[in-house]
Amino acid sequence: MSSSAIEVRSISKQYDLGEGGSVLSFFRQTSEKFWALRDVSFEIREHEAVGVIGSNGAGKSTLLKILSRVTAPTQGRARIRGRMGTILEVGTGFHPELTGRENVYLSGTILGMRKCEIDRRFDEIVDFAGVERFIDTPVKRYSSGMYVRLAFAVAAHLDPDILIVDEVLAVGDVGFQKKCLAKMDSSINQDGRTIIFVSHNMQAIRSLCSRALLLHQGSLVADGPISEVLANYADRQQTSFDVRERSLNNRLNRTRGHARITALSVSSPGQAERRNWSFNTDDALELNISYEVVEPIESLDLVVSFSVAGNGDVVTSLRETVRSEPSMPGASGHIRIEIPKLPFRPGEFALTLGLGSNGFAVFEDILDANVNLPHLVIESLEDDLFRRNGLVSIDYNVHHTETRNLRSLAKA
C-alpha cells in the first residue's frame, strides 16, 4: 500500500484587507479580515493524481501556494514527502534577471539535483519549451507564453516526486496545452508521480485525475471520485441568470451593444426542478434567452455554439435570424431553443451565445466563459467505455447478414 505524499491538517489562511503596509494602516484601529481558506484537511497518497476545482475565489491558488511553500498558513500544517516541482502563476519560480539557462540550473539545484543530472536533461527541457533561440536571454524579456513553457518544462523534466500545476497553463497556446497534458499523463501512468492539478478545464481534470477536491468560499466541500465531485460542482451552478449588468464592460469592449441579452436559463423538459448544468447524454435541453434593443438595428441574428471546455474547439453551432426587419430602442423579445437529444459524450462543454446584426457583420452582444458563464457537464449512464469516449454520439443502424461458409459449400 502506498504511503502519504501530502498531508494537510486543518489549514486556514487569513489576509488583511485594505491598505496593508501603508502609512494610513498604522493609524487604523481595526482592519477587515478575509479567510481565503478555512479548516481544510485532506491526504494524498503517492502516485495519485488529484484535481482541485472550484469557482474563482474559492481558495484553489492559495492552497497551492501553501503546499509549494510560497506562503505560510495562518493555522494548521501541511507535510510534504518528496521533491516537489511547482508551476503557479507567471512570475513565480524564476529570477527575472537570470537567463533561461541559468534559471534551469537554479531550479534543479533547489530541487536537490546534481549538475550532471541537470546536464543530462537540459536539451530535453529546452526542446520541450521551444525556446532554443532565447535560452541565454534574461527571462524578464520573455513573453508570458515563453515563460510558462519553460517553467513547465523545468518542473516536469527535473524528476520531481510531486508535481503541482495551477491554471497557469491557460496562458499557453492550445498546442502547448495539449503537449503539457500529454506530459502530465505520462508522468502519472509511466513515471508514477503524484500530481495536483488546478484547472477550470473539467475535460482535462476528468482525463488526468481519478479524484477531485472541490473548494467553495475557502472550505473543502467535496473530496472523492472525479465523477461524483464534478457532479457536485455542477449542482452548485445557477440555471437562470439576469445578465443585464453581468460583466457588461467586458461585453461592450468586444461588441457594439445596440442589442443585449438580458436573461438566460437552461432546463430539461420533464425535469422542472433542475438546478444545475449537469445533464446526461440524450437528455433534452431547452435554452431560454431574453433580449432588448437599446439602439436602432437593421436586423437581429442569434448564434449558439458548443465547444470543448478548455481548448475552445467548436463541436457544433446553430445560427438563426431572429428579426429580419429594423428594430428601434425599447423592442424586446424571448427566444426558446429546443434540442430533443443532447448528442454529447461525457465531458465539459462551453456555451457561447452571440447577438449580431446585418448577418453578423456586426456583433451586438456575447455571453461566454469570459463573463463566467458556467459549462455544461455531460454524464452518461453507459458503462461501456466505447460508448463514453469521444465528443458526440450518432444515431445509426447496424444490419448483419450471415453468409454460408464457402469451405462447407465446396465439401457439399
Walk me through the structure.
Helix 4 (115-129) crosses helix 5 (144-157). The chain is globular, with a radius of gyration of 26 Å. A hairpin with a 4-residue loop joins strand 17 and strand 18 (362-367). It starts with a strand and ends with a helix. It is 24% helix and 33% strand. It is built from 10 helices and 19 strands. The model has no long low-confidence stretch (mean pLDDT 83). It is α/β, with parallel strands linked by helices and 412 residues long. The protein has helices at 23-27, 60-67, 100-110, 115-129, 144-157, 174-189, 202-208, 226-235, 248-254, 406-411, and strands at residues 4-17, 32-45, 49-53, 75-80, 84-87, 162-165, 194-198, 211-216, 219-225, 240-242, 259-267, 278-280, 285-293, 300-308, 314-323, 332-339, 347-357, 362-367, 375-379. The strands form 4 sheets. It has a 6-stranded mixed sheet with strand order 5-6-7-3-8-9, with helices on both faces. Strands 12, 14, 15, 17, 18 and 19 form a 6-stranded mixed sheet that branches. The chain has a 4-stranded antiparallel sheet with strand order 10-11-13-16, with no helix packed on it. The chain has 2 domains: 4-235, P-loop containing nucleotide triphosphate hydrolases (Rossmann fold); 240-387, Distorted Sandwich (Coagulation Factor XIII, Chain A, domain 1).
